[in-house]
Specification:
This protein is α+β, with helices and mostly antiparallel strands. It contains three helices and two strands. It has helices at about 5-40, 70-75, 100-104; strands at about 55-60, 85-90. A two-stranded parallel sheet has the order 1-2.
Length: about 100
Protein backbone atom coordinates (compact mmCIF):
# COMPACT_ATOMS: atom_id res chain seq x y z
CA UNK A 1 0.00 0.00 0.00
CA UNK A 2 1.26 3.38 -0.96
CA UNK A 3 1.72 6.21 1.51
CA UNK A 4 -0.79 9.00 1.14
CA UNK A 5 0.58 12.50 0.82
CA UNK A 6 -0.82 15.68 2.29
CA UNK A 7 -2.50 16.52 -1.02
CA UNK A 8 -4.24 13.15 -1.02
CA UNK A 9 -5.57 13.77 2.48
CA UNK A 10 -6.77 17.24 1.50
CA UNK A 11 -8.50 15.80 -1.54
CA UNK A 12 -10.28 13.15 0.55
CA UNK A 13 -11.25 15.74 3.16
CA UNK A 14 -12.71 18.06 0.53
CA UNK A 15 -14.55 15.20 -1.18
CA UNK A 16 -16.12 14.04 2.08
CA UNK A 17 -16.99 17.63 3.05
CA UNK A 18 -18.76 18.23 -0.26
CA UNK A 19 -20.85 15.06 0.12
CA UNK A 20 -21.80 15.95 3.70
CA UNK A 21 -22.92 19.45 2.67
CA UNK A 22 -24.89 17.97 -0.24
CA UNK A 23 -26.68 15.49 2.03
CA UNK A 24 -27.50 18.21 4.56
CA UNK A 25 -28.96 20.37 1.78
CA UNK A 26 -31.07 17.48 0.51
CA UNK A 27 -32.33 16.86 4.04
CA UNK A 28 -33.18 20.54 4.56
CA UNK A 29 -34.94 20.82 1.19
CA UNK A 30 -36.99 17.68 1.85
CA UNK A 31 -38.05 18.82 5.31
CA UNK A 32 -38.82 22.31 4.01
CA UNK A 33 -41.07 20.86 1.32
CA UNK A 34 -42.84 18.63 3.85
CA UNK A 35 -43.41 21.64 6.13
CA UNK A 36 -44.75 23.67 3.19
CA UNK A 37 -47.21 20.89 2.31
CA UNK A 38 -48.32 20.67 5.95
CA UNK A 39 -48.95 24.42 6.17
CA UNK A 40 -50.95 24.41 2.92
CA UNK A 41 -53.34 21.83 4.35
CA UNK A 42 -54.30 24.13 7.23
CA UNK A 43 -57.39 26.01 6.20
CA UNK A 44 -57.86 29.57 7.37
CA UNK A 45 -61.10 29.78 9.26
CA UNK A 46 -63.36 32.77 8.75
CA UNK A 47 -63.26 35.09 11.74
CA UNK A 48 -66.51 35.32 13.66
CA UNK A 49 -68.56 38.39 12.76
CA UNK A 50 -69.09 39.32 16.40
CA UNK A 51 -65.37 39.73 17.09
CA UNK A 52 -64.59 41.80 14.02
CA UNK A 53 -64.61 45.59 14.28
CA UNK A 54 -65.74 47.72 11.37
CA UNK A 55 -62.71 48.80 9.34
CA UNK A 56 -62.13 51.26 6.54
CA UNK A 57 -59.37 50.55 4.05
CA UNK A 58 -58.09 53.64 2.27
CA UNK A 59 -56.06 53.18 -0.90
CA UNK A 60 -54.43 56.30 -2.35
CA UNK A 61 -53.86 55.94 -6.09
CA UNK A 62 -51.87 58.31 -8.26
CA UNK A 63 -51.03 56.98 -11.74
CA UNK A 64 -51.56 53.38 -10.66
CA UNK A 65 -53.15 52.14 -13.89
CA UNK A 66 -51.00 49.00 -14.07
CA UNK A 67 -51.57 47.74 -10.53
CA UNK A 68 -54.77 49.26 -9.15
CA UNK A 69 -57.06 46.52 -10.50
CA UNK A 70 -55.05 43.74 -8.84
CA UNK A 71 -54.71 45.75 -5.62
CA UNK A 72 -58.45 46.36 -5.28
CA UNK A 73 -59.24 42.77 -6.27
CA UNK A 74 -56.84 41.43 -3.60
CA UNK A 75 -58.39 43.68 -0.95
CA UNK A 76 -61.89 42.53 -1.88
CA UNK A 77 -60.80 38.91 -1.49
CA UNK A 78 -59.65 39.43 2.10
CA UNK A 79 -60.84 36.88 4.64
CA UNK A 80 -62.92 39.44 6.51
CA UNK A 81 -66.71 39.84 6.77
CA UNK A 82 -67.87 42.06 3.91
CA UNK A 83 -70.43 43.87 6.07
CA UNK A 84 -67.69 44.89 8.53
CA UNK A 85 -65.38 46.60 6.05
CA UNK A 86 -65.41 49.37 3.52
CA UNK A 87 -62.91 49.97 0.75
CA UNK A 88 -62.24 53.54 -0.34
CA UNK A 89 -59.94 54.14 -3.29
CA UNK A 90 -58.77 57.74 -3.63
CA UNK A 91 -57.86 58.66 -7.21
CA UNK A 92 -55.38 61.47 -6.66
CA UNK A 93 -55.58 63.46 -9.93
CA UNK A 94 -54.08 60.68 -12.04
CA UNK A 95 -52.82 61.38 -15.56
CA UNK A 96 -53.28 57.82 -16.79
CA UNK A 97 -56.26 55.45 -16.98
CA UNK A 98 -56.51 54.73 -13.26
CA UNK A 99 -60.16 55.81 -13.11
CA UNK A 100 -61.09 53.47 -15.98
CA UNK A 101 -59.30 50.59 -14.31
CA UNK A 102 -61.22 51.27 -11.09
CA UNK A 103 -64.52 51.15 -12.95
CA UNK A 104 -63.76 47.59 -13.99
Amino acid sequence: MENLTLIDYLFLYSLISIWIVLLINILLATNGYMYYMKINKIKIQLIEDKKCPFVSILVPAHNEEKVIYKTVRALLLLNYPKDKMELIVINDNSNDNTAEELKK
